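User: For my dataset I need records formatted as: sequence, then structure tokens, nothing else. Please produce one.
Assistant:
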Amino acid sequence: MNILTFEAHQAPAEGDASTLVVDNTVDPRSIALDGVQRIDLHFPKFTDGRAYSQAYLLRRRLGFTGEIRATGDVLIDQLVQMARSGFTTAVLREGLKADAAQRQFDRFKGFYQGDAAHPAPHFAEAGNAEADVERQVAA
């Protein structure tokens, strides 16, 4: 996951159709994704998790492959779950340092469950020959 400080983040230029800024009340299924390369999803408060659902829908159900950026009240302890939900970039809230963020990812090296980034559960990736064949066929 790409981590940006608050100061490093740039809002999309006016008229930039390749980047969408989506409020957390919008259903992603209602968005036209043609030509979109980046979607900014907003966390108005760290306790409001609707953007997680939006990111997951964009990745898994709608097949969006571009950048999904978390903006707003983004805390370091949310980053691992954001990555698992489909976010590729997070803009930390003002005052937080990006170098501390890597420690979160170092603490959690893997997961048993599948997620938006790696849909296959861990046991299916652990040398299971049948799962290996299914993955090769799907690719």
